[in-house]
């Protein structure tokens, strides 16, 4: 029987013998946040973050994370201009990820990371955070990793981070290899300038169950989860077709149904996971009302109470009528 692979054992095969900084510091690197239209939900390998299904996302252009690494006399993590306590969960996660590359005996680093994602929008930052950190590690230690390694290693930080290395539409292919080196994201060669994403904030309170624990609980306890991989595979095909044909109705319908199917599996978990707040349900009804009144708008949601609306530039004014406070993003600039 093969020995169980760890993040460290997979990464070590691609690193030079000695990993040392190539200079005092690097220019800050940026990675965009992303929103999945076909969700990543469930892992076949929890250690390596290998997914049960392939997923497809759209990156949020200039919204994301910027990160810089510098030589320092102690490990220190700064977030949005403030030093984070060393024992803080965030700081420990960042340093543990750097340890995978420099080793626990590696020289200390200062990590400066800034999110320009409006905190009020309640968007996750772990995807752009680990993607930017991966790029910063690559630059700081002069690793010159190829795109496959960058995506596979960012994925070990957080699954959705594998998709945050690119702009536009990105597909994360689930892969079949045990070491996960084929479980990587690739950009789609398609633009859709008229596409818009609206961020609708319902609550920014920290959720009780993070997406990592939520997806593991769903896989372990929800019988309904058995239908998810099939649904996701079919949705992925439909999204590819919708993007190729610029068929917005098909894109929106597929993304909304995919998100609601994922949430159905969470509700069927035990203990149940219902990330929705009353305000989330009210917003869904408003969207369905808008559609009934002829405004083409759809939504997607992740493991949280906030909604991401999908519409085209043409419908923006009409959608704003229903959601005057939403923030609008043009993912293709
Ligand atoms: C619902 O990538 O945060 O947003 O791999 O455990 O770090 P880990 O999970 P994470 O999960 C994201 C789940 C999702 C769907 C998606 O973005 O595809």
Automatic annotation (TrEMBL):
<feature type="domain" description="Diphosphomevalonate decarboxylase-like N-terminal">
    <location>
        <begin position="31"/>
        <end position="185"/>
    </location>
</feature>
<dbReference type="Pfam" id="PF18376">
    <property type="entry name" value="MDD_C"/>
</dbReference>
<dbReference type="GO" id="GO:0005829">
    <property type="term" value="C:cytosol"/>
</dbReference>
<dbReference type="GO" id="GO:0004163">
    <property type="term" value="F:diphosphomevalonate decarboxylase activity"/>
</dbReference>
<keyword id="KW-0444">Lipid biosynthesis</keyword>
<dbReference type="InterPro" id="IPR020568">
    <property type="entry name" value="Ribosomal_Su5_D2-typ_SF"/>
</dbReference>
<dbReference type="GO" id="GO:0005524">
    <property type="term" value="F:ATP binding"/>
</dbReference>
<keyword id="KW-0067">ATP-binding</keyword>
<dbReference type="Pfam" id="PF22700">
    <property type="entry name" value="MVD-like_N"/>
</dbReference>
<keyword id="KW-0547">Nucleotide-binding</keyword>
<protein>
    <recommendedName>
        <fullName>diphosphomevalonate decarboxylase</fullName>
        <ecNumber>4.1.1.33</ecNumber>
    </recommendedName>
</protein>
<keyword id="KW-0443">Lipid metabolism</keyword>
<dbReference type="InterPro" id="IPR029765">
    <property type="entry name" value="Mev_diP_decarb"/>
</dbReference>
<dbReference type="InterPro" id="IPR014721">
    <property type="entry name" value="Ribsml_uS5_D2-typ_fold_subgr"/>
</dbReference>
<dbReference type="InterPro" id="IPR036554">
    <property type="entry name" value="GHMP_kinase_C_sf"/>
</dbReference>
<dbReference type="GO" id="GO:0019287">
    <property type="term" value="P:isopentenyl diphosphate biosynthetic process, mevalonate pathway"/>
</dbReference>
<keyword id="KW-0456">Lyase</keyword>
<dbReference type="InterPro" id="IPR053859">
    <property type="entry name" value="MVD-like_N"/>
</dbReference>
<dbReference type="InterPro" id="IPR041431">
    <property type="entry name" value="Mvd1_C"/>
</dbReference>
<comment type="similarity">
    <text>Belongs to the diphosphomevalonate decarboxylase family.</text>
</comment>
<dbReference type="InterPro" id="IPR005935">
    <property type="entry name" value="Mev_decarb"/>
</dbReference>
<feature type="domain" description="Mvd1 C-terminal">
    <location>
        <begin position="202"/>
        <end position="322"/>
    </location>
</feature>
């Amino acid at each position: 029987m093969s020995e169980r692979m760890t993040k460290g054992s997979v990464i070590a095969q691609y690193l030079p013998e000695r990993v040392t900084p190539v200079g005092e510091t690097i220019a800050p690197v940026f990675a965009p946040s992303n929103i999945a239209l076909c969700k990543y939900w469930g892992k076949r390998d929890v250690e390596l973050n290998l997914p049960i299904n392939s997923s497809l996302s759209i990156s949020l252009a200039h919204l994301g994370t910027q990160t810089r690494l510098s030589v320092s006399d102690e490990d220190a993590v700064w977030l949005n201009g403030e030093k984070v306590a060393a024992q803080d969960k965030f700081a420990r996660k960042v340093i543990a990820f750097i340890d995978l590359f420099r080793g626990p005996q590696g020289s200390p680093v200062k990590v400066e990371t800034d999110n320009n994602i409006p905190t009020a929008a309640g968007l996750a930052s772990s995807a752009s955070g680990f993607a930017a950190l991966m790029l910063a590690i690559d630059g700081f230690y002069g690793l010159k990793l190829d795109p496959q390694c960058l995506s596979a290693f960012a994925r070990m930080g957080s699954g959705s981070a594998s998709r945050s290395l690119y702009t536009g539409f990105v597909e994360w292919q689930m892969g079949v290899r045990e070491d996960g080196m084929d479980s990587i994201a690739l950009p789609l060669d398609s633009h859709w300038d008229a596409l818009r994403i609206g961020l609708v904030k319902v609550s920014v309170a920290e959720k009780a169950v993070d997406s990592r624990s939520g997806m593991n609980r769903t896989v372990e306890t929800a019988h309904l989860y058995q239908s998810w991989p099939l649904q996701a595979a079919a949705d992925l095909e439909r999204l590819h077709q919708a993007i190729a044909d610029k068929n917005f109705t098909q894109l929106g319908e597929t993304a909304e149904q995919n998100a609601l199917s994922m949430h159905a599996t969470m509700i069927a978990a035990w203990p149940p996971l219902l990330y929705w707040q009353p305000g989330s349900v009210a917003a869904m009804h408003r969207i369905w009302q808008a559609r009934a009144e002829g405004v083409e708008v759809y939504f997607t949601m992740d493991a949280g109470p906030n909604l991401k609306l999908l519409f085209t530039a043409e419908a923006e004014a009409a959608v704003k009528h229903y959601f005057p406070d939403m923030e609008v993003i043009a993912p293709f600039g």
